[in-house]
Write a structure and sequence with these properties.
With 330 residues, the protein is α/β, with parallel strands linked by helices. It is built from eleven helices and eleven strands. It has one domain: NADP-dependent oxidoreductase domain (TIM Barrel). Strands 3-4-5-8-9-10-11 form a seven-stranded parallel sheet. It has a two-stranded antiparallel sheet with strand order 1-2. It has a two-stranded antiparallel sheet with strand order 6-7.
């Protein structure tokens, strides 16, 4: 497995693993997940050389961290474990975004216990709180670094101006936001802001929540409880239009003799050495396929062909419904 330096000396495998789909009957369901299968997948990922694992207290909620923690027990050395906080809670019910230092501390201590580790390698603010200045939030997170509870800090779905303000308070090692062939909004100002401040970029949903892999042709291909049925890009109106992007990826994939998913991930890796995608997986087959992406080298002709089929802004439909869109780029 090839490696990349995200920023500030944080070295990770060139492909990380998004553990969110591993939730069993959780709050964000991407088809059927099984704890035993997910655990085997994490173990196989480690065997393949994957060192970067991403979770969050929101996933489940809380149960995903417990699953990851149990799976890495006894195999922690050399791994980079990332988790995220954003919400305040009443039991398992979120009561609102809370970027206060007190909530960051509460979340950090809870995540450490659930993960069964002494230090969180990369601690993100999952969503920016518009009611708490980012300087105050990052200042509180920085205290956790001083205390040895966290190694590196990150943000998620932050606007370019927010990134710049945060970086003045404490070094920010990574920004995690959605980025893929069909979601390129970050290219305009957010990615440049990261590079101005030496911040690595971690794309989540690098396969368009599975769509770019090519196995979904209609809503009938998704289980009734699948979260993606609420995704505007998967709607009856938009999905047929977006299939053209999948077809273009498929042409390039066939030429290389690899999967659509590997091409979509290789495209992201080609956008810069500071980019480390975290495709979501729950099965070994998907893991093994994604892990092969760093070995795929796209030519300039390949990149131009994809660009022609999927220029920035051409995807049909927003990436979230209205409520979700209100929480990004803050």
């Amino acid at each position: 497995m090839k490696h990349r330096n995200l920023s500030h000396g944080l070295n990770v495998s060139a492909i990380g693993i998004g553990c969110m789909p591993m939730i069993r009957e959780g709050n964000i369901n991407y088809g059927v997940a099984d704890d035993a299968t997910s655990t085997r997948t994490i173990h196989e990922a480690i065997d393949l050389g994957v060192t970067f694992f991403d979770t969050a207290e929101m996933y489940g909620p809380f149960r995903n961290e417990e699953l990851v923690g149990a799976a890495i027990r006894g195999r922690r050395e050399g791994l980079v474990v990332a988790t995220k906080f954003a919400m305040s809670w009443d039991g398992n019910t979120p009561t609102g975004v809370d970027g206060s230092p007190a909530n960051a501390r509460r979340a950090c201590e809870g995540s450490l216990k659930r993960l069964g580790i002494d230090t969180i390698d990369l601690f993100y603010q999952h969503r920016v709180d518009p009611n708490v200045p980012i300087e105050e939030t990052v200042g509180g997170m920085a205290e956790l670094v001083k205390e040895g509870k966290v190694r590196f800090l990150g943000l998620s779905e932050a606007a370019a101006a927010t990134v710049r303000r945060a970086a003045k308070v404490h070094p920010i090692t990574a920004l995690q936001s959605e980025y893929s062939i069909w979601e390129r909004d970050v290219e305009a100002d957010i990615l440049p802001a990261c590079r101005e401040n030496g911040i690595g970029f971690v794309p989540y949903s690098p396969l368009g929540r599975g769509f770019l892999a090519g196995g979904i042709k209609s809503l009938d291909d998704l289980p009734p409880s699948d979260w993606r049925r609420n995704d505007p890009r998967y709607s009856v109106e938009n999905l047929p239009k977006n299939l053209a992007v999948v077809e273009a990826i498929g042409v390039v994939a066939k030429r290389h003799g690899v999967s659509n998913a590997q091409i979509a991930l290789a495209w992201l890796l080609a956008q810069g050495d500071d980019i480390v995608p975290i495709p979501g997986v729950k099965r070994s087959e998907t893991l093994r396929d994604s892990a092969g992406a760093p070995d795929v080298t796209l030519t300039q002709a390949d990149l131009a062909e994809i660009e022609a089929a999927a220029p920035n802004g051409a995807t049909a439909g927003p990436r979230y419904a209205e409520t979700g869109m209100a929480r990004v780029k803050l």
